[in-house]
């Protein structure tokens, strides 16, 4: 076959066509692979080339008290970031930012000099910092909105609420316990650029995804919490004590209305306070209950039919030898009725009653009241207290446990056990959260009061009530717990602390306590006060009982509970004004309760006052004021100078300063 130029040309054309056909098929095949078979991987690789995705934490839900008053919320603040590859003058940028933000120039330069496409400079700026940096208009420096946790009442209920970190994830308290519920779903900050760093579309920064967290409504009442914290702080100051706790519960439901611990801290600046200031002592501390345990031992014996209220117990004239130890009473007594044993707090009398129960039955009874086990409260870090197995008790253990030594309880356990005596014999469950609400205002979860079990009969509970009422009457150990106009039932406690060095009881360190309920006929409040290491006077009846009285009287007035008795002269002179330990301060207000010509009281002017000033005025003037909102008073009813009619609802509305 002769090779001609025409054949050669046709062959070259065919080869070129074949090459382009194969190349076209390869391109089509690769395109099919990338866009169809491997589409997700291709899209992800493309996005990585022109987008930078930075996770953004969502807005945490708010925390409210039982009346809808805000205790914690998240506010939008600016966070500052940099894109180093877009910075034109790194040295000038470092100098400017270091000066305005008070940052180290060396560390800032290390962050800004490099090939990284995104780096945080400072998160959650103060408004002043944000404004100053914006005025600089630095290339490669940008802002995005984040949410910062804010506690508008500062240290109020700090031990209950806890605090969050920069993330912001809950680190302690309810913020930690309910972190997943409060946090919501994560969103993203997306920055989009072309190869030259120019923005794509109308904006090169968008925020995608995310949803706000759920909000919590607590059982706490903000005003009762303030009263408990204020009076606890004043009581600690007067006693020279470094720490203490107080609880206010509704015995009918077990709801915790106030939960106070001292020393305290400000969750807005938690890093400035020692770790010990952040501990919620009402659930995380344990102590020997001392004489506050005696009513429960007597109740167990009466419920078992072993003793009656009028049965005589010989108290050995103040000295009793049992199991190799000698038990003493503060004052020698001969025959006492069971009711008198509780009234005068006889160690010997209650030790003999404990002996009637014997080891196993006493152990079972104490466990039934909730001692030696967690209450199950929705709060992290709760301890169980210590109640040893009765198989390991000696004769002396049975005696001393009967009057509250050789075992430990938490303040919450003791308060809930007292609810059993106040509500007719039922142990109720305590939670701090009443309901959970989503970001659309819909109730996601609502918790109802729950009875755990019946512990003693209603008859026995009523008899113990009468005995505890005698404790605060003439000749009792708790007379300073009296509340003018109301009948009070309670029990004092003074326990030695264990010395961690020697392992024995300390010679000079005590825990003074008082627990009780009011009014006796229809208990509305159970209140516990614990004073740790009082230095001036160490007895619970002298140190803790007056604090109980002041919390109870102000709380009953706030709740609108009418007195059931004619108001006598106060048993105790008013406590002198003292500076509470820690941030709570007493501020004098200018409000005064004057009268018109008809003798009717006139409404004071509360304009511009803070919540604390209103509460202090309420206490001093004897007014029952409903406080709405937080911040400063912007509206009130009745208006200033108007007569206050009997039965009128008196309220003030507050708003944060603009």
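^ structure tokens above, recovered residues below v
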């Amino acid at each position: 076959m002769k090779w001609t130029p025409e054949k050669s040309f046709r062959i070259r054309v065919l080869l070129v066509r074949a090459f382009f056909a194969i190349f076209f098929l390869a391109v089509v095949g690769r395109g099919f692979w990338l866009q169809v078979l491997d589409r997700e991987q291709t899209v992800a690789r493309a996005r990585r080339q022109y987008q930078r995705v930075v996770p953004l934490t969502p807005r945490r839900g708010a925390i409210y008290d039982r009346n809808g008053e805000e205790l914690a919320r998240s506010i939008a603040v600016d966070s500052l970031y940099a894109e180093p590859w877009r910075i034109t003058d790194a040295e000038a940028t470092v100098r400017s930012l270091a000066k305005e933000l008070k940052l180290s120039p060396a560390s800032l330069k290390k962050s800004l000099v490099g090939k990284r496409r995104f780096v945080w400079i400072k998160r959650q700026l103060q408004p002043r910092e944000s404004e100053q940096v914006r005025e600089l208009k630095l290339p490669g420096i940008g802002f995005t909105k984040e949410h910062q946790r804010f506690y508008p009442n500062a240290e109020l209920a700090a031990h209950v609420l806890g605090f969050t970190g920069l993330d912001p994830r809950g680190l302690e308290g309810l913020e930690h316990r309910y972190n997943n519920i409060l946090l919501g779903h994560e969103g993203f900050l997306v920055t989009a650029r072309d190869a030259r760093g120019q923005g794509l579309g109308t904006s090169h920064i968008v925020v995608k995804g995310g949803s706000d967290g759920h909000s919590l409504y607590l059982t706490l009442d903000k005003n009762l919490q303030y009263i408990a914290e204020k009076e606890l702080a004043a009581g600690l100051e007067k006693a020279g004590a470094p720490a203490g706790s107080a609880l206010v519960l509704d015995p009918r439901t077990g709801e915790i209305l106030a939960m106070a611990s001292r020393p305290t801290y400000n969750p807005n600046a938690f890093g400035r306070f020692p770790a010990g200031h952040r501990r919620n002592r009402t659930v995380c501390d344990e102590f020997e209950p001392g004489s506050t345990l005696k009513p429960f031992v007597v109740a167990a014996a009466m419920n078992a039919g072993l003793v009656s209220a009028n049965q005589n117990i010989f108290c050995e004239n103040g000295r009793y030898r049992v199991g190799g130890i000698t038990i003493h009473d503060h004052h020698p007594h001969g025959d006492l009725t069971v009711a008198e044993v509780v009234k005068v707090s006889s160690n010997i009398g209650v030790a003999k009653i404990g002996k009637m129960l014997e080891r196993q039955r006493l152990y079972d009874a104490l466990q039934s009241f909730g001692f030696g086990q967690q209450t199950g409260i929705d709060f992290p870090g709760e301890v169980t207290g210590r109640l040893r197995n009765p198989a390991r008790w000696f004769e002396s253990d049975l005696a001393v446990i009967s009057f509250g030594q050789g075992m430990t309880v938490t303040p919450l356990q003791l308060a809930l056990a007292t609810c059993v005596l106040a509500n007719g014999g039922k142990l109720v469950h305590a939670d701090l959260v009443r309901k959970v609400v989503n970001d659309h205002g819909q109730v996601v979860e609502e918790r109802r009061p729950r009875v755990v079990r019946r512990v003693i009969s209603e008859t026995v509970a009523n008899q113990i009530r009468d005995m505890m009422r005698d404790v605060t009457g003439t000749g009792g150990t708790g007379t300073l717990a009296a509340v003018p106009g109301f009948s009070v039932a309670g029990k004092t406690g003074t326990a030695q602390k264990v010395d961690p060095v020697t392992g024995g009881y300390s010679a000079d360190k005590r825990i003074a306590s008082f627990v009780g309920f009011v009014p006796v006929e229809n208990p509305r409040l159970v209140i516990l006060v614990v004073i740790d290491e009082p230095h001036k006077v160490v007895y619970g009846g002298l140190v803790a009982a007056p604090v109980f009285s002041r919390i109870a009287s102000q709380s009953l007035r706030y709740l609108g509970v009418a007195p059931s008795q004619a108001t006598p002269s106060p048993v105790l002179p008013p406590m002198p004004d003292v500076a509470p330990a820690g941030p709570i301060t007493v501020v004098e207000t200018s409000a005064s309760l004057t009268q018109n010509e008809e003798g009717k009281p006139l409404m004071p002017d509360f304009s511009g006052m803070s919540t604390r000033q209103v509460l202090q005025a309420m206490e001093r003037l004897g007014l029952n004021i409903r406080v709405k909102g937080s911040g400063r008073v912007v509206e009130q009813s009745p208006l200033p100078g108007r007569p206050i009619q009997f039965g009128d609802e008196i309220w003030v509305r507050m708003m944060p300063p603009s």
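Confidence is low (pLDDT under 50) at residues 199-206, 568-592.
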